[in-house]
């Protein structure tokens, strides 16, 4: 049986606004982040999109976002937390390394600074979201995660060429829709909020 996963990035935070690296560190949602999350909640309601289960990462920006979208019970999971960037967390985004041309990501760069590799992030995202979708009573699920972690999950199912061809951008509060069957996720669509 085909199931559906809505994987969402949290709302804008203070660190997003200040262009700081977040990772495992946290910062509060901005007024825009709060308003955008409510807008996504309204979209789900207007389109009669209901979830039998909801999940978010253990980071507050994700749980705060989820609570603005729905008042249903939810579970917090470490497996869908943001990419760990080690000592770079809280620092300016200008310190981010250049993208590895072969892996087309930050690769192993952050490991030497106490963070995670792209492969580690992708593996835990895939493992956690697969386990969620394999639960018998989970048919239509909402999961709120983070930009880097969500991107690495998407990379498992779509090539970089396809991501570029479809012009997929993971803005704050972006919602990616996947179908799930027999251990495999299939990307269906992305919805970003309209820019003001």
UniProtKB/TrEMBL annotation:
One of its GO terms (molecular function) is phosphatase activity. It comes from the Bacteria. Substrate binds at residues 9-16, 61. InterPro entries: His_Pase_superF_clade-1 (IPR013078), His_PPase_superfam (IPR029033), PG/BPGM_mutase_AS (IPR001345), PGM_Phosphatase (IPR050275). GO terms for cellular component: cytoplasm. Pfam families: His_Phos_1 (PF00300). This is Phosphoglycerate mutase.
């Amino acid at each position: 049986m085909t199931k559906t996963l809505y994987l969402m990035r949290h709302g804008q935070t203070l660190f997003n606004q200040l262009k700081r690296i977040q990772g495992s560190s946290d910062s509060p949602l901005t007024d825009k982040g709060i308003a955008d999350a409510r807008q996504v909640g309204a979209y789900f309601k207007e389109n009669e999109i209901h979830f039998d289960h909801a999940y978010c990462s253990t980071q507050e920006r994700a749980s705060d976002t989820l609570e603005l979208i729905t008042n249903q019970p939810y579970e917090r999971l470490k497996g869908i937390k943001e990419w760990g960037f080690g000592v770079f967390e809280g620092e300016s985004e200008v310190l981010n390394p250049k993208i590895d041309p072969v892996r087309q990501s930050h690769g192993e760069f952050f490991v030497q600074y106490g963070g995670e590799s792209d492969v580690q992030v992708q593996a835990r995202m895939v493992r956690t979201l697969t386990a969620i979708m394999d639960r018998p009573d989970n048919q239509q699920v909402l999961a709120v995660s983070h930009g880097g972690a969500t991107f690495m999950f998407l990379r498992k199912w779509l090539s970089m060429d396809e991501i570029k061809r479809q012009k997929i951008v993971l803005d704050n509060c972006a919602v990616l829709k996947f179908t799930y069957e027999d251990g495999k996720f299939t990307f269906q669509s992305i919805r970003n909020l309209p820019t003001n």
